[in-house]
């Protein structure tokens, strides 16, 4: 096993502006489901992905759809790209699976690694550009540049540093497991994509993150590197047998099948300007003036409603899709014919639809109590038996037409919301606390209120972004 070259070469980064980079932080994923517009356009994908970036994401993607994003789980306003990797599951001794929680979403590095043969010219990939790094079929270390471009860091902030590995580490990682994927940075200069989503790009011809591009792919694009971290330490006392208990959603217990997908949604001229002018050796994006940042409430709140009708969370009898464990070392194969849904279904709402039961509609999630000022100022009630229905019925009985739920237990009533404080389409992810009286319902968040109002005429729940077909 090699020590990944990125680890070594990152030490060189500090030398000067020529090796600068900037990091785009991505908050909680947009959606975790079987969607992959590159490999499986228009249908459910083979396995569950965790998807970050612009809410324009859908089962079939164009550049224009990225630009239509209404919110973004990543911080750069000018970047409506999507970044995705497979979800990680814990595989229990009894055969059940449960998703391993992610630590945030991802950290995306944009590294200005020049090609010595192109006079330092690094270009932003064009609108519509997309690519995949790695292969879900790999089950062993293959001595290739693509294999070296994928690695795992077993995080232990208090202990001695341990070498990164190409497969899953076989010990508990006290601060989580970080998957790392370095994308090809050499482009053929012509094709936005290719049938295998790889051949239009290539790694530099000696190492995955440095050096000249091969003559077949002579255009140096910005080097993109993903870090995605999971809280595997939460399962520290649940190991059994003599191997590690984590599997990727595509039935990989080895980790060698790690792969990532990139769909370019940048404002191309801004990305080019950032490449040309941002020279912070520490990668701090706040020092990169062409790029502007969303507040955390936007990136934390940006969420898409999943629309494949299956469970992906909680204890599962099998991995979603047709993904039996394939331990290798031979390449895995695609399995079909299990009963997993292939169709895209209706979006599953995070709010509770009470239009037909109560004649009230959902209008959104808003910041509340900023500076001690509540946005619904009528009566209020709190309790350990709070539900959406209880709050609405209380407000209705008190003569109000709006009801807001907050922090699992609280209910506020009123008749109007200051237009400046009205909920927008973006922050549903801030209103996901379970209701104290029904954990299957959502009752706002800490400082965030989920609001319903009495319908006037036809009821119309506010439409949140859904994964477009
Ligand atoms: C994308 O949007 C631009 C600007 O609105 C428009 O001119 C172009 O026709 C659109 N392209 C496609 C493929 O829809
Ligand atoms: C399997 O084991 C896990 C962890 O011990 C447990 O929580 C889960 O309920 C079990 N599932 C079944 C189907 O027994
Ligand atoms: C790598 O690419 C450069 C530029 O095209 C070329 O000059 C060099 O010979 C290549 N090296 C190898 C080992 O292929
Ligand atoms: C939110 O709920 C938590 C847990 O019940 C409680 O400790 C906290 O005080 C509440 N916050 C507010 C602002 O009411």
TrEMBL record:
Signal peptide boundaries: 1-20
Family annotation (InterPro entries): DUF1996, WSC_carb-bd
Domain of life assignment: Eukaryota
Residues covered by the WSC domain: 359-455
Keywords: Signal
Protein name per its UniProtKB record: WSC domain-containing protein
Annotated source species: Penicillium fimorum
Record lineage: Eukaryota, Fungi, Dikarya, Ascomycota, Pezizomycotina
């Amino acid at each position: 096993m090699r020590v990944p070259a990125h680890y070594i070469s990152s030490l060189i980064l500090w030398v000067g502006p020529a090796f600068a980079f900037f990091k785009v932080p991505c908050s909680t994923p947009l959606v975790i489901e079987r969607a992959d517009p590159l490999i499986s356009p228009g249908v459910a994908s083979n396995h569950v992905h965790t998807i970050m970036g612009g809410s324009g994401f859908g089962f079939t993607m164009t550049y224009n759809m990225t630009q239509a994003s209404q919110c973004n789980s990543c911080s750069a306003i000018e970047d409506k790209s999507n970044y995705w990797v497979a979800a990680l599951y814990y595989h229990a001794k009894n055969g059940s699976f449960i998703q391993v929680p992610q630590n945030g979403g991802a950290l995306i590095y944009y590294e200005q690694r020049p090609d010595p043969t192109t006079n330092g010219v690094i270009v932003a990939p064009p609108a519509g550009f997309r690519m995949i790094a790695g292969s879900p079929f790999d089950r062993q270390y293959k001595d290739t540049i693509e294999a070296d471009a994928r690695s795992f860091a077993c995080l232990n902030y208090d202990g001695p540093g341990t070498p990164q590995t190409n497969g899953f580490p076989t010990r508990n990682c006290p601060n989580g497991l970080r998957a790392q994927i370095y994308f090809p940075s050499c482009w053929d200069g012509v094709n936005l994509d290719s049938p295998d989503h790889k051949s239009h790009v290539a790694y530099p011809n000696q190492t995955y993150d440095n050096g000249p591009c091969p003559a077949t792919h002579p255009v140096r694009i910005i080097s993109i590197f993903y870090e995605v971290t999971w809280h595997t330490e939460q399962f520290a006392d649940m190991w059994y047998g003599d191997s590690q208990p984590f599997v990727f959603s595509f039935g990989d217990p080895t980790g060698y099948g790690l792969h990532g997908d990139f769909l370019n949604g940048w404002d191309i001229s801004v990305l080019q300007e950032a490449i040309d002018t941002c020279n912070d050796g520490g990668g701090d994006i706040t020092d990169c003036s062409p790029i502007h940042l969303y507040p955390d409430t936007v990136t934390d709140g940006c969420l898409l409603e999943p629309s494949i009708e299956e469970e992906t969370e909680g204890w599962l009898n099998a991995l979603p899709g047709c993904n039996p464990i394939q331990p290798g070392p031979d390449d895995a194969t695609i399995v079909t014919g299990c009963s997993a849904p292939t169709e895209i279904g209706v979006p599953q709402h995070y709010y509770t639809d009470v239009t037909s039961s109560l004649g009230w509609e959902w209008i959104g999630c808003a910041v509340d109590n900023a500076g001690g000022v509540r946005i619904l100022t009528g009566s209020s009630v709190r309790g350990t038996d709070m539900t959406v229905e209880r709050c609405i019925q209380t407000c209705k009985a008190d003569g109000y037409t709006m009801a807001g739920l907050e922090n699992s237990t609280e209910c506020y009533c009123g008749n109007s919301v200051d237009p400046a404080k009205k909920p927008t389409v973006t922050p549903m992810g801030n209103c996901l606390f379970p209701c104290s009286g029904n954990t299957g319902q959502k009752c706002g968040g800490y400082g965030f209120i989920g609001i319903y109002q009495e319908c006037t005429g036809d009821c119309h729940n506010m439409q949140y972004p859904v994964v477009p077909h």
